[in-house]
Write a structure and sequence with these properties.
This protein has about 220 residues and is an alpha/beta fold. It has helices at about 20-30, 45-50, 70-80, 95-105, 115-125, 135-145, 160-170, 175-180, 185-200, 205-215; strands spanning about 10-15, 35-40, 60, 85-90, 110.
């Protein structure tokens, strides 16, 4: 993570389409010692363009955004900057969006009714290696895993190489880092991913990771 050696200030970017919420979060971050708001964006497209050359330490992102949604967007942020810590800040609390956000690379999931002080605590917790979640979200995650029963055997005819690549994605690797780990080019990874998507009948990295968990494809 490219954090200044002269300062331990945490650089935070906000992606939120509602101006009043965006400005409120910006003031919260900007007026808290040890934090700096380095970007506030009304769309994911704007954020991605701005972060192309230098990423923040932490991204607070909404899900329901104009244009590209937050879940797809944070997947792209993690592709470009695997070191960035991402927290979702959303009104949505359904299982599907929570699971997709976590699979796409978010380490925490907060609801928008979270008190300001708790948001700051969540950022600190995430940077410390934790996975902060609103209590309502945490209960849903626990319920999903409590009720989860892996199937005895599901066979999608993945090759050993495809299985290794899928495991790297499950472990949070980007296409670039997976290519480096496997000793192949990014184009080769893309080729194998296309085959994996076809066999699993999915259309994105997050869907592939979700299916790998759900069907017990990775040990």
């Amino acid at each position: 993570m490219e954090q200044s050696q002269q300062s331990s200030t945490v650089r935070v970017a906000i992606i939120e389409d509602r101006r009043e919420i965006r400005e409120g979060l910006s003031m919260l971050i900007g007026f808290t010692e040890g934090f700096e708001c380095v970007g506030k964006y009304g769309s994911m497209e704007e954020a991605l363009a701005s972060m192309r050359h230098r990423a923040p330490d932490v991204v607070l992102s909404d899900i329901g955004l104009p244009g590209m949604d937050g879940i797809e967007g944070i997947g792209l942020i993690k592709e470009q900057h695997p070191e960035v810590t991402i927290l979702m800040l959303s009104v949505y609390e359904d299982n599907e969006r929570i699971f997709e956000a976590l699979c796409a690379g978010a380490v925490g999931y907060l609801l928008k009714n979270t008190p300001p002080a708790k948001i700051l605590d969540a950022i600190r917790e995430a940077l410390g290696g934790g996975s902060p979640m609103s209590p309502e979200v945490a209960r849903k995650v626990i319920t999903v895993f409590r009720n989860y029963r892996p199937p005895e055997k599901v066979n999608y005819d993945l090759t050993p190489h495809e299985t290794r690549l899928l495991k790297l994605l499950v472990d949070g690797h980007s296409y670039k880092t997976a290519a480096r780990d496997l000793g192949v080019s990014v184009n080769t990874v893309s080729f194998h991913l296309k085959s994996i998507y076809e066999k699993l009948q999915v259309h994105s990295k997050s869907e592939a990771v979700a299916k790998a968990f759900r069907d017990g494809l990775i040990k």
